[in-house]
Amino acid sequence: MPNRTVFFVSDGTGITAETFGNAILAQFNMKPRHVRLPFTDTIDKAHQAVRQINHTAETEGVKPIVFTTLVNMDVLKVLQDQCKGMLLDMFGTFVNPLEAELGMKSHHRVGRFSDVSKSQEYHDRIEAINFSLAHDDGQSNRDLDSAEVILVGVSRSGKTPTSLYLAMQHGLKAANYPLIPEDFDRKQLPPALVPHRKKIFGLSIHPDRLAEIRAERRPNSRYASLENCRMEVSEAEAMMRRSGIRWLSTTTKSIEEIATTILQEIKPERLIY
Asked: What is the DSSP letter of 5?
């Protein structure tokens, strides 16, 4: 099967179209070329999108795959009538049957980020991101009572990207702390974290993978040596077991999988979707 060009056309950011489309495409053994066409919110822009899609169809000799999340029906109709790609209208596929089932009209809003100035959820998300940045890598002990989850683990085990994902995607205030040799010598958690044990979740990683990651940052250093990585991972896991902290290995998991596991375990009272 020839690899295709895939278009993601939206009158908003296109995040929904691309996320959903990529989840579907992952079921197939192909590496499509991605083309993002966000903010396609006028008839003129729709015609521009059609010209680009149709040119690709003629050049490649196969239909491009086109995922759309277009709310404006006039804009969508341009693509439906003139596009030479395989059009997959996700809102039409799901929203219309839901309207019929629920007996009510949808809001037909453009994207989840519309009218952000009036959105409390958006405000909470920004606050969570600022909190996570301020409490990254143990930078601050202040206001840990406000943290909804505190990630611990050795350096480069995935704490920072996971914290930011939880903040950006779910609006959670996530702090993270590195476990360092001084902690292993004391055989105790950092003192600032002890009162917040119920919020703590641990991340570990296979020493071989950790050595690879650290070598990219500091090649030929003790920090990146396999012997040191084995020692740190072993001590960190032993400390988490002694402290009764839930933890998982990030070695083969994506950030999304790590975050989902944490949410299932921590069960925060408030989540933003």
From this structure: E
Residue 234 CB: number of other CB atoms within 10 A?
Answer: 13
In whole angstroms, how far apart are CA 191 and each of 173, 198, 242?
Answer: 20, 14, 15
pLDDT of residue 1: 47
> Distance (Å, rounded) from C-alpha 164 to C-alpha 255?
10
For residue 82, which of 39, 40, 52, 59 has the smallest C-alpha distance? 52
pTM strictly above 0.85: no
pLDDT in tens, 13-63: 888 889 889 989 989 988 899 999 999 999 999 999 999 999 999 999 999
Strands (E), 38-134: 65-69, 86-89
Domain boundaries, the chain: 5-102, 117-266
Q: What is the CATH number of domain 117-266?
A: 3.40.50
What tokens were used for 144?
């840990």
